[in-house]
């Protein structure tokens, strides 16, 4: 049986850990020079690049490796480089590589921190060039938005807070659930930010931004009638994304 004094010590230690987490979080705040958004980031661009390069082979392996047709890979590279070279992406320190994955069953595209962008053949084969540009522009947006780095920092923050709560009152699971909800909300915001950036990159590269709306329709059709409700998903519903994309097109067209 613990004494009252030992419980006080545990609570004080727990409060100190939680306080440290919040102080560290505030000190990590910085403005993203490419989006203007203030973020909680605890790593450098060089570290992001290293994480992406280290993780890329494993991510490719999980999707059956790279698609074997070099001609199609060259096409993906050309569209990706066109988007980078005509946008603010070329001013960033990131190393952009575009990978066509062999997976012909999973409709997906994603980006690792630092510039490693992926699209599965299952999604690629459904797209025309402008729609491919929309998908790749969206993934470039994730890189420029530093969404992975922000997610890592948020995860570390909530892990530290959870540890402090566990020490003080054995309530780590509750705090952990708060962290998960926070990450879920931020994930949706990240998708919308990347959609807007993708529209801007399409316009700058000379692509029809309305093709991004067609991408959303493709994703909605692929998900089928039993798709996960928006509030249970890290991605906004395609219908909501379409409305935001239309607003982004009005915002950036003619610029």
TrEMBL record:
The keyword ATP-binding does not apply. Its cofactor is Zn(2+). One of its GO terms (cellular component) is membrane. Pfam families: Peptidase_M48. It comes from the Bacteria. GO terms for biological process: proteolysis involved in protein catabolic process. The keyword Hydrolase applies. Binds 1 zinc ion per subunit. Signal peptide: none annotated. Residues 73-247 form the Peptidase M48 domain. One of its GO terms (molecular function) is metal ion binding. InterPro entries: Mito/Outer_Membr_Metalloprot, Peptidase_M48. Keywords: Hydrolase, Metal-binding, Metalloprotease, Protease, Zinc. Belongs to the peptidase M48 family. This is Peptidase M48 Ste24p.
